[in-house]
Amino acid sequence: MVTRPKLPRCIKAWISQRTTDMSLSAKQVGRLKPILFLLGLLPIVRWVWLGINDDLTANPVEFLTRSAGTWTLVCLLVTLSITPVRQVFQQPALVRLRRMCGLFAFFYCTLHMLAWSGWDQGFDLTDMLTDIAKRPFILVGMVAFLTMTALAITSNQFSMKRLGKRWQRLHQLVYLIGCLAILHYWWHKAGKHNFQEVSIYAGVLFLLLAWRFVRWGRQKFSPVPAVGNANKRAAVSASGNPDT
After folding, report:
1. pTM reported for the whole predicted model
2. Cβ neighbours of residue 139 under 8 Å, at least 6 residues apart?
3. Where are the transmembrane segments (predicted)?
4. Most buried by CB count within 10 Å: which residue of 25, 186, 198, 238?
């Protein structure tokens, strides 16, 4: 009978310490926030640059409206990707970047709506209703925007404490927003039968939702020790950002 050699405690502790040291601390992630903020403003810098150089295409209103919509979807997908990335690479502190990404998605969605309702429709309710009746995909976008507004308003510690468990259920609507955004974009492109770009975004969203579904299934049907559940709840409480 062969006895498996055991590592000395000092080596185990060293390996454990090295593994732990690879994770970014909350302070290190906090230093990334200014960089992330500047990156989030790059689309606006690009618009200004194009405007100064008179390069906003022949229809600037349409260009800016669609560009803001595209960046809404990009920021939304980045927001949804943070949870898989932080769990796959064991970087729990990355959760602190999710709120900013989500708010940037709301910011560009607001610009997208204002560009359509203001520049394109002149804030004329009759014209807006006529356009919605003619192009129903706009209604889908408005539903997504109103839902996103509720999430943006409650993206703070006060709302988390006030709503309790209802807060996490509310913010799970981000999945619905993602699906509505894809439907809105897909329906818009259907008139021209141009699905190449929207198919890429739809594929990314599908992978992100599939990952969550598989993870949910494993947690649902795999026995998890009570201690593990307690540790998970403690981590969520400390971060102030439940998984979504």
Report:
1. 0.83
2. 132
3. 32-49, 69-89, 101-119, 139-158, 170-186, 198-214
4. 198
Read off the tokens for 120: 């394109």
35, 93, 104, 117, 157 from 111: Cα distances, Å = 22, 30, 11, 10, 26
In the 3-class helix/strand/coil scheme, how is 126-140 assigned residue by residue?
Answer: HHHHHHHHHCCHHHH
What single-letter DSSP state applies at residue 2? P
Structure tokens at 129: 């209703």
The pLDDT value given to residue 9: 52
pLDDT tens digits along 56-98 = 988 999 999 999 999 999 999 999 999 999 999 999 999 999 9
pLDDT of residue 216: 85
In sequence order, what are the residues at sequence separation of 6 or more whose Cβ sits closer than 8 angstroms to the Cβ of residue 73? 181, 182, 185, 201
Q: How many angstroms separate the first and last alpha carbons of the chain?
A: 49
**Taking every pair of C-alpha atoms in the chain, what is the biggest distance, in angstroms?**
86
- Conformation bin of residue 240: beta by default, left when phi > 0, alpha when psi is -120 to 50: left
How far is it, in rounded angstroms, from Cα 12 to Cα 31? 31
Is residue 137's pLDDT more than 60?
Answer: yes
Distance CA 229, CA 148 (A): 30
Q: Which two tokens stand for residue 192?
A: 């021209």
CA dist., res. 93 & res. 87, Å (int)? 10
